[in-house]
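Notebook B, p. 112. Complex prediction, attempt 2.
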Amino acid sequence: MSTAGTTDARVGADPLIEFEQVTRIFGTGKEASVTAVDNVSFKVDKGEVYGVIGFSGAGKSTLIRLVNGLERPTSGTINVLGHDVSKLSESRLRHVRSRIGMVFQQFNLFQSRNVAGNIAYPLRVAGWSRVERDSRVAELLDFVGLGDKAKAYPEQLSGGQKQRVGIARALAVKPEILLADESTSALDPSTTGEVLRLLRRANEELGITIVAITHEMEVIRSIADRVAVMDKGKIVEEGLVYDIFSNPRDDGEVTFVGSALRDRPTDEDLARIRLHTRGRLVTVSLKDSAAVGALLGQAAQFGVSFEIVHGGMNTTKNSSFGLLTLALEGEGDAVQHFVETMRGVTPVQEVRYGNEVPR
Amino acid sequence: MIDAYRDLDWNYYGPELIDALGETVQMVVFAFAISAWIGLTLGLLLYTTRAGGLLANAALFWIVNFLVNTIRPIPFIILIAALQPLTIQMLGTGIGNTAVIHAMVWASSFGIARIVEQNLVTIDPGVVEAARAMGASRVRIIFTVILPEAFGPLILGFTFVIIAMIDMSALAGIVGGGGLGNFAIVEGYQRFRPEVTWLAVAAVIVMVHMLQIFGNLAARKVMRR
């Protein structure tokens, strides 16, 4: 047992969640087994919103269930709130779980209990007295804006309202970590925004650390500080949301981020673009949009004319970024000279279309 | 037909019918009061010990599943006879209503087990997972999530079983028991008085309808739809 002093020292000093070379294999035998999570390592710090994004079947659901021990790793260690959850017995795990809230894609509300009963359930499990429960439930209903729905049953609520109850229930015992498992995937776009704003408030006002898995870029853009991109059980990219989204990758690989953002022209787009322009196609990052704008203003002085053929801006939690695809035309070396100057300002990537030879 | 009922000796058949009805009700109520608990326990075992269940235990599941599959298909009339030695040992008699109640407990317990299991597997596994994620113990989950979530369908399932038990109780006459089945056979069939047999039929029909209406109402109230 650690003393109170060392426990205090651990807060803030160590990450709340730390995965080290974690692998989870389902089934046995070479052909039947599926590696859902493949040698994954990452850390989540106190107070941050960590997003995990990937196509369905990438292993995200298994990953998030490893955090609270709903799934056990085949190998590797998982440290959560100072406990090695991969080694805890089911009964000891319960104490860790009571410090972690979880929100589900299908809400998973108890149909046999009304809204207040759903929110009070984890409080009963945690042994709160009736008086404490009642006042906490009222407080949470207020926080999620459902003060008038205490007596309603889940089937009488809309999807967005159900998820707000789900969030209130997950926050009930004042957990340190909130796991959001595709929390907006069953909702329409307008309710998605409502639920995401609520998660953001939980993070900002209550200081709760959030791990959110999703296949929706919208979720990552609006609430995540850091993001991990998952593919076939592995984390293939990880970093600050802004960095991952704003840096065009040069290997031309169709990444999840790229395909979800639709920020660069597809082959079909290029075919259409080629119908009316013969210019050299480049994609420039708008990380520093002011500098790019200034340079484009001087294009004529370089003897280059440009046309914006594709592009878009995206906003993240605290910044914006985007990619612009340009068709450049000019005499002699003018275009090459202009591209080189641009490279001094921002990342620039050649766009290859079909069998065209890059210049 | 109407003439037959007008000429019936109601002073004799009236009290006889009421007595028979009372005996049927008594047999069903006593047997159900015991088998409901046994069946519920066995059904919960089947549901929780299956692969991926809360108390996943392949050996225990195999044993309970085998028992249910073995006892359940035995025709009730054979079960009464087959259980008689055990009935005598346990109750001191192998005949009468008590012996029939004993056989009914066996037959309905295993039937209820299967019906409980079938209703529990329809519960959304997500709510069980949610309760686990909150740190609820497995026993708590069984009593505060699984049973309440399946309560409505369980009421309908139990209604079905009670009606099946009225059916079982009709065979009580075989071992000297009473009830509506015995009344229909002894007073009606064996004395060539179909109008008397039909009195028992009518009593059973009324009883079953009332039970089903009550079961539906209760289930609807619980499920709020």
